[in-house]
């Protein structure tokens, strides 16, 4: 069993509230638009991190993190990238990558819109944790946490970090 904290679109922002949730996870996954390495370094001091770079990330972050990662954990095949689209509206690169890796869990960021949706066409769970940072049009900062165990994705929870303008 692994407890996962999933966040995205921090845009150089990390605070004690996010770090409190990091401490409760076994692993932290970041779906891009990190902003600066202080964000990921803060997380890595506490827990293991898997991350991809996003469109706002500079060459330094792009050197440390890939565009896309795929891996298997607790019997769940995972594919994560930053810009992807949504079920029925994936970009071409994403469609090809999904076909190649056939994940059970597909993760992206970019839109700042939290979404958890089953994709029937690709037989996978599509997840976007929204935005944990303060930059963007989102009104509420969000993350997700869930458990991977014996090939199953369980106990998915939305974490609301507060209204963006009040943080």
Domains counted in the coordinates: how many? 1
Integer-rounded radius of gyration:
15 Å
Kindly report the name of the CATH homologous superfamily: Metallo-dependent phosphatases
- Treating each run of at least 4 consecutive H or I residues as one helix, how many helices? 4
Number of strands: 10
Level of helix content? 10-25%
Shape, per Cα inertia axes: globular
Strand content: 35-45%
The main β sheet shows up as: 5 strands, mixed
* Unreliable sequence segments: none
Q: How much is the average pLDDT?
A: 95
Decide which structural class fits the backbone.
Answer: alpha/beta
Q: Give the neighbour order of strands across the main sheet.
A: 3-2-1-9-10
CATH topology: Purple Acid Phosphatase, chain A, domain 2
Per CATH, which architecture?
Answer: 4-Layer Sandwich
Sum this structure up briefly.
The chain has 167 residues and is α/β, with parallel strands linked by helices.
What is the element layout, followed by pairings?
Layout: E1 2-7, H1 16-24, E2 27-30, H2 37-44, E3 49-51, H3 59-64, E4 68-73, E5 76-81, H4 92-101, E6 105-107, E7 114-119, E8 124-129, E9 140-149, E10 152-163
Parallel strand pairs: 1-2, 2-3, 5-6, 6-8
Antiparallel strand pairs: 1-9, 4-5, 7-8, 9-10
